[in-house]
């Protein structure tokens, strides 16, 4: 997660276990609905863009989360379960999936 100049946050992939294709080339974000982003390396994909805190809801939201395995973006809200665990809830048309991201030390 990185903080943007406007105070919002982005989450970007920095490592992928199987980053190379069968020919030894870096895999790309080929399912991205934005054709201009299909040449982005899989270890540089932005998963969440523009996440910010909403005081009245006491959570983070008003952003989209991207699933590069399916090639779509859905609304996302987030809240901290602990100092090192972030709960993300992606929803589309009332259906949702909850993910948990855990902070790792570099």
| Percentage of residues assigned to helices | under 10%
Class of secondary structure makeup: mainly beta
What's the order of the H and E elements?
EEEEEEE
Rough outline? globular
Percent strand = over 45%
- Computed over alpha carbons, the radius of gyration is 15 Å
In order across it, which strands form the biggest sheet? 1-2-3-4-5-6-7
Distance between the termini: 13 Å
The number of helical elements comes to: 0
Average pLDDT, rounded to a whole number, is: 93
Unreliable runs: none
User: How many individual β-strands?
Assistant: 7
What kind of sheet is the major sheet?
7 strands, antiparallel
Brief rundown of the structure:
With 106 residues, the chain is mainly beta.
Write the layout of secondary structure elements.
Layout: E1 2-3, E2 9-12, E3 46-54, E4 59-67, E5 72-82, E6 85-92, E7 95-102
Antiparallel strand pairs: 1-2, 2-3, 3-4, 4-5, 5-6, 6-7
Can you offer a commentary on this structure?
There is one protein chain. By secondary structure, the protein is mainly beta. Helix content is 0%, strand content 48%. It is built from no helices and seven strands. A seven-stranded antiparallel β-sheet has the order 1-2-3-4-5-6-7, with no helix packed on it. A hairpin with a 2-residue loop joins strand 6 (85-92) and strand 7 (95-102). It is globular and about 50 Å long. The model has no long low-confidence stretch (mean pLDDT 93).
